[in-house]
Amino acid sequence: MTFPWKCPYCPKTFATKEELESEAAPNSEKKRLEYQVTHKGCMCHRAPIMLDIPPEDYVADVLRFALREVHHTIEVTVRRRCTTQEQIDKLADFLHSKVNCVIKVRKVKKKQGVKEDKTPNIIGRECSLTMHHSEDMVRTILSEDDPRLEKALMVWSCLKLLWREMTTRMALDTPAFRQTKARAIKQRADNYIAALIAHGTAQDVYLYSYVASQHLPAQVLRHGDLLDYSMQGKKRSKGKNKHQSDAAD
Fold it and tell me: By the 8 A CB rule, do 72 and 208 touch?
């Protein structure tokens, strides 16, 4: 990095390294979110840690994808539609009874006073259970005459199809099967993204949705079946997995 240095994501220019390092971080949740979006995930004008490692050299963790996308889809399709404390409680009770997930309760200051924000803490197999009960969950919050109902159900339908594609093993690990699997994952991911946009706006497309569309197909072409490297709650390079496998043998 040479100075003066211009941030590639915003108009700001830094004359010296000291000036860059003294840059104050965003001081509110809203500003932090805006910064993360406009700077592609960079913090304080610094490049992402793994910028020099091509995404196709790594294999995305399928479980982590499910955890983040299920949380995000709940937020987009139902949590934002909860306008009363009664609806928030109803959603929390549904997830606790049907999915058996822990509900984290925190106090949030609002103009009307302090409200309880009940956030589901979904882990592991609870992701699959949430997707299984997604239609009932959406109908718990949205009425039959709500114009957003069908679009919300379509978002969940597309997510479930993408998840099924990601967790279905290839019959054979050959170039032809890899091509077919990569195309199928991309198509399912693109459908999910389109459903998110149709339901809300382009701002509702989450980072993991983009990864599924743009990077998972390339990872499948290069490494083969995603399930050989995933479902362990960690992101690993192919080399590391192979080393661990050899050590286990």
Answer: yes
Amino acid identity of residue 159, one-letter, is: L
> What distance in Å separates the CA atoms of residue 15 and residue 3, rounded to the nearest whole number?
6
Instruction: Say which residues have a Cβ less than 8 Å from residue 223's Cβ, sequence separation at least 6.
Output: 59, 229, 238
Residue 117: phi and psi, rounded to 5, are -105, 110
Q: Give the pLDDT means over successive 10-residue stretches in the chain (249 positions).
A: 78 84 78 69 53 66 85 90 86 87 63 60 81 94 92 96 91 92 95 94 85 88 83 44 36
Element holding 59 (H helix, E strand) = strand 58-59
How many Å apart are CA 216 and CA 66, to the nearest integer? 13
**Is residue 16 exposed (0-12), middle (13-18) or buried (19+ Cβ within 10 Å)?**
exposed
**By three-state DSSP, how is residue 90 classified?**
helix
Asked, as a colleague might, if the bond just before 4 is cis with ω within 30 of 0, I would say yes
Do 182 and 217 form a contact (C-beta atoms < 8 A)? yes
